[in-house]
From TrEMBL:
Record lineage: Bacteria, Bacillati, Actinomycetota, Actinomycetes, Micrococcales
Active site: H217 (tele-ump-histidine intermediate)
Residues annotated as domain Galactose-1-phosphate uridyl transferase N-terminal: 144-226
Gene: galT
Entry's family note: Belongs to the galactose-1-phosphate uridylyltransferase type 1 family.
GO biological process: galactose catabolic process via UDP-galactose, Leloir pathway
Entry's Gene Ontology molecular function annotations: UDP-glucose:hexose-1-phosphate uridylyltransferase activity; zinc ion binding
One GO CC term, this protein: cytoplasm
UniProt keyword annotations, A-Z: Carbohydrate metabolism, Galactose metabolism, Metal-binding, Nucleotidyltransferase, Transferase, Zinc
Protein name according to UniProt: Galactose-1-phosphate uridylyltransferase
């Protein structure tokens, strides 16, 4: 007989209820219940017998670039395209010992084979401190060959739905709003962990991107450093001015590449798009991360983002592979200048064609665009015109 228990609960924005639990090996699990959910307060207990969690990975510094490379060998054992009856993100059944012991609306749990964590810079609760006492993160930029550090941080999986197929774009407005509330809650919690410098929310969609699970889900990474892409952004802000994002939005709003607009959000194909399909979405007000969004901004984002994703899928009539990357300001720098924004990119340059990163892009970082951004915006606009306003 399956054991169940009442879980500690907290009411978040929009009537979303958060319930906190643990998996059998001690990993955190959080349920985010839709407002008015039909789920009971009790949830099944994870009774699996699991092996101990792998040790925290080690990251090594590339002296040529200054980048830190996390070497997480445990990721080699992760599940790849399992059959539907063994979906690890579906609720557990007698024949499927999945990661989710109970029925859920939205669920977030610590990755079993993380690239960062579970160790932190300082021990907190069940999360140990980095094993190497010399692994402090304050000197990550120091020079020297052969430098390594413990990959402190956290990696979490965000299950958008118990359904076995789909993506964020297939959710209802209510469910999308619940996911956004979960993103905000986890961003705040992860940003407070010792040693975490930046929190990244993202969704990989499609086998062409490298997705290994078709179940609708995304991920959240909490890094022990400011990522290379964000470091370049901070350099641009220093060069262009602290009001860079405000000026970008003003520039794009007056141009020909706007796709969707609301009171609080705007979506557009950027002036210098790299990818065949590339869309940016940003709040009109300066907001550093999801945790700083107002209720009104979250409410508008849910239907607007759903319509955008459905329009991207309507480009060719079949699901479009993409990376939906939500860039957030670092935890401790540039909070008043680096703005939360989405960069959605797809390598799909035709119904049956993909853009591959070859010599110039992959080796030199020198991009060559295949489709003029204005043409891409026109095509996306035509696709979006076939998508009605998302109301439910």
């Amino acid at each position: 007989m399956t054991q169940s228990a009442d879980l500690p609960a907290a009411t978040l924005g929009a009537g979303v209820v958060k319930r906190s639990a643990r998996l059998a090996d001690g990993r955190d699990l959080f349920y985010y219940d839709d407002p008015g959910t039909a789920l009971p307060a009790e949830r099944a207990i994870d009774a699996r017998e699991l092996a101990p969690r792998p040790e925290t990975a080690t990251m090594r510094r590339d002296v040529l670039t200054g980048d830190w490379i996390s070497v997480a060998a445990s990721r080699q054992s992760r599940v790849v395209m399992p059959p539907a009856d063994l979906d690890p993100l579906a609720p557990q059944t007698p024949t499927n010992p999945s990661e989710l012991p109970s029925a859920y609306d939205v669920a977030v749990f610590e990755n079993r084979s993380p690239s960062f964590g579970p160790a932190l810079d300082v021990a907190v609760g069940d999360a140990p401190a980095a094993i190497d006492p010399a692994s402090g993160l304050e000197d990550l930029a120091a020079p020297g060959l052969g430098r390594s550090r413990t990959s402190v941080g956290r990696c979490e999986v965000v299950c958008f739905s118990p359904d076995r197929v789909g993506s964020f774009g297939s959710l209802s407005v209510t469910r999308a709003r619940t996911v956004i509330e979960a993103w905000a809650d986890r961003t705040a919690a992860l940003s407070a962990l010792p040693g975490v410098r930046q929190v990244f929310v993202f969704e990989n969609r499609g086998a062409e991107i490298g997705v290994t699970l078709p179940h609708p889900h995304g991920q959240i990474y909490a890094y022990p450093y400011v990522t290379p892409r964000t470091q370049l952004l901070l350099q641009s802000i220093e060069r262009e001015g602290a009001d860079l994002f405000a000026r970008i939005i003003e520039f794009e709003a007056a141009g020909p590449r706007v796709l969707l607009e609301g009171e609080h959000w705007i979506a557009y194909v950027p002036f210098a798009a790299r990818w065949p399909v590339e869309v940016h979405m940003a709040p009109r007000r300066h907001v550093a991360d999801f945790a700083e969004l107002s209720s009104a901004e979250k409410d508008e984002l849910a239907p607007l983002y759903l319509r955008l994703l459905r329009g991207v899928d309507a480009l060719y009539g079949t699901p479009t592979p993409y990376i939906a990357a939500w860039h957030q300001a670092p935890v401790d720098v540039a909070r008043d200048s680096a703005r939360l924004h989405l960069q959605l990119t797809s390598p799909r340059r035709g119904a049956d064609k993909l853009k591959f990163l070859a010599g110039s892009e992959a080796a030199m970082g020198a991009w060559i665009g295949d489709i003029p951004p204005e043409q891409s915006a026109d095509r996306l606009g035509e696709a979006l015109a076939t998508i009605p306003e998302v109301l439910s």
